[in-house]
Amino acid sequence: MVLIDAIVIIFLAAGIIFMFTGVIGLLRLPDFYTRLHATGKCDTLGEVLIIAGLLLYHLFVYSPGAELSVKLVPVKLLFLIIFIFLANPTATHAIMKAAYKTGVKPWKKGDARM
Predict the structure, then answer these.
(1) Which of 10, 46, 76, 109 has the greatest count of CB atoms below 10 A from its CB?
(2) Interval 29-55: pLDDT, tens
């Protein structure tokens, strides 16, 4: 049990670190496109790591000896991971494409910071 707890803590901590990295990118980067790129990448990986940690915890700690409805929770978490891997990059791309089509200009070296 100690090994599983350590692995779960590592997954959760790594997910939180990636989420905070995305927040720093959102606050520090100069324009819309780089900010969206940082948050899209970091949020996707951070969310997947956190959900993977929850999935491992549920598989090995919570659900042994439980009823069927409780044992199906890891399957739902796995589907959620797949959905996040598909939906987040697609949404980020669609938002960037819409911004480009409406005329949002990318930042160039020498431009004043927004």
Answers:
(1) 46
(2) 989 999 999 999 999 999 999 999 999
Instruction: Assess contact for 103 and 59: CB atoms under 8 A.
Output: no
Beta carbons of 69 and 38 less than 8 angstroms apart: no
Residues 6+ apart with CB under 8 A from 31: 105, 106, 107, 114
Q: Domain boundaries in the chain?
A: 2-101
Residues 6+ away with beta carbon under 8 Å from 74 = 55, 58, 59, 63
Say how far apart CA 91 and CA 98 lie, in whole Å.
11
Helix segments in 2-103, DSSP class H: 2-28, 32-57, 68-71, 73-101
The answer to whether 48 and 84 are in contact (CB under 8 A) is yes
Q: Which two tokens stand for residue 64?
A: 């042994």
The closest alpha carbon to 12, from 38, 47, 37, 58, belongs to 47
25 in Cβ contact with 39 (< 8 Å): yes
Residue 59 backbone dihedrals phi, psi, to 5 degrees: -65, -45
